[in-house]
Amino acid sequence: MHDLVIRGGTIIDGSGRPGFSGDVAVTAGRISDVGGKLGTAHRTIDASGLLVAPAWVDVHTHYDGQVTWDPQLAPSLWHGVGTVVFGNCGVGFAPAKPDSHSWLIQLMEGVEDIPRVSLEKGIPWGWESFAEYLDVLAAMPRTLDVGAQLTHGALRAYVMGERGAKNQPATSEDLATMAALVKQAILAGALGFSTSRTLIHTAIDGEPVPGTFAPEEELAALARAILAAGRGILEWVPRGVGGEDRAALTEDMKLMRRIAATGCPVTFLLAQNNSDPDQWRDQMRTVEEAVRAGERLTPQVFARPICTLFSIAGDHPFTFLPSYAPLKDLPVPERLHAMRDPEVKRRLLAETDPNTTGMSLLYQNPLIWQRTYPMGTPLSYTPAEKDSIANIALRDGRDPREVAYDLLLGHHGRAFLMYAAANYADGNPNAVHQMLSHPLAVLGGSDAGAPRPRNLRRQRSDLHDHEMVARAPRRRSASSAARVGRQENDQRDCTALWNVRSR
């Protein structure tokens, strides 16, 4: 007799084949049989009308802080995720000297918008080295399996202090020390190392993530350290990933190939940008060329349009204007009242954003209003082209910035605008579908743990066609696990791919 049988569901078994109706049996914590009617069990679950699939392996999250105090890691748990990997985008919390705690928190807040107060109150610290960080994580019983990566930001600051934090060049001694720590971290259980090179990623003070300007020599030294450890992967956020610098994106793809040619596996974020909607195709051709040459270069593909929500209570394209500075810290009702003042509105509409890094690069994109939409009820992440701010302004004979400004003040300041920063440059998600269908791509980029509205929380409803649903669990589980250095497990094995430390 089985311990558990899940009966009558549509089984998506992770192999990539079409779904089929049947039962799944579990005995002693492992999947013991899959197929037709599987007999009796101590407990049964009726899955009629439901999909039954392997848990997702989410390779791109930002639970670095939350994982130290939360054994459940919602919302990932609620959406069928069984394993999360964090330490992405070059930001994390180990290694960490005691006097760098506040700085690391502000770096994470700036890049991933995780509130400082939550991190300050939640993180228990109690570690300095990466191995000690893993010890803290391993001491907590968990609902999900977790895997951590060493990050360029934390590593540079730990080894180089202020010089590293301010992106100054590393000396030969710095490189040797950083490489040694990378190898030590991976041998202790890190799944890999991550770096970010986009100017969109900045700390609260506007300083780009340490490592943003790292030369090829530094990246190659760290890649060789990964190789010396005998396992691990290099996660990379390329320059120009958001369309802010198309030429730089092309150059970074070439650089990634040279690093991958060392033998170190490289994975990077891939998205359709608004500035050049077909540039992602060139990137995929580069990946194909790399794979034919024996290099391991893997794109992580988002599952839907990548969106940022604008609101008066949060961020929006007027946030960094000079005249907005006195309004930033006001309670929302007072801020709303001030923004309704005609003179304040006139000044804000006349000003330009002075920043050259961070989210300002997206706000300054001349195509922003063509890809910004009012959020209706129910919320839609695939709005119609006619509903863009640019098209509303065209119909009304008004300036798009004024239209956006007025809409933000609607519903007593509770209105939202959705900016499709990537993966919606054609006014539809077709490019996403094509990227997801590519055999060399894996699903990634959920940013779970960061509050910005992203993609994998809705991926199951957005991967709507039957063929894509059948392929999704493989891309989200076995294939994704293999890309971050784990071998594909037997699909009958219910045990963890990893728990804190790679085995």
Task: Tell me what the structure shows.
This protein has 503 residues and is of the alpha/beta class. It contains 19 helices and 17 strands. It has helices at residues 101-112, 116-122, 130-138, 152-160, 162-165, 172-188, 216-229, 246-260, 279-292, 332-339, 342-350, 360-363, 389-396, 400-408, 410-413, 430-437, 459-462, 466-476, 478-483; strands at 2-11, 20-27, 30-35, 41-46, 51-52, 56-58, 81-86, 145-148, 150-151, 192-196, 233-237, 266-270, 297-301, 306-310, 372-374, 417-422, 442-443. The strands form 4 sheets. The protein has a 6-stranded parallel beta sheet with strand order 9-10-11-12-13-17. The relative contact order is 0.14.
Give the rounded overall mean pLDDT: 90
* Strand adjacency order, main sheet: 9-10-11-12-13-17
Low-confidence stretches: 453-466, 487-503
Fraction of residues in helix: 25-40%
Share of residues in strands: 15-25%
Structural class determined from secondary elements: alpha/beta
Terminal CA distance: 32 Å
Instruction: Please provide the count of β strands.
Output: 17
Largest sheet: 6 strands, parallel
Q: Note the total helix count.
A: 19
Overall 3D form: globular
Q: How large, in whole angstroms, is the Cα Rg?
A: 23 Å
Question: SSE layout and pairings?
Answer:
Layout (H helix, E strand, L loop, with lengths): L1 E10 L8 E8 L2 E6 L5 E6 L4 E2 L3 E3 L22 E6 L14 H12 L3 H7 L7 H9 L6 E4 L1 E2 H9 L1 H4 L6 H17 L3 E5 L19 H14 L3 E5 L8 H15 L5 E5 L8 H14 L4 E5 L4 E5 L21 H8 L2 H9 L9 H4 L8 E3 L14 H8 L3 H9 L1 H4 L3 E6 L7 H8 L4 E2 L15 H4 L3 H11 L1 H6 L20
Parallel strand pairs: 1-4, 1-5, 6-7, 7-8, 9-10, 10-11, 11-12, 12-13, 13-17
Antiparallel strand pairs: 1-2, 2-3, 14-16, 15-16
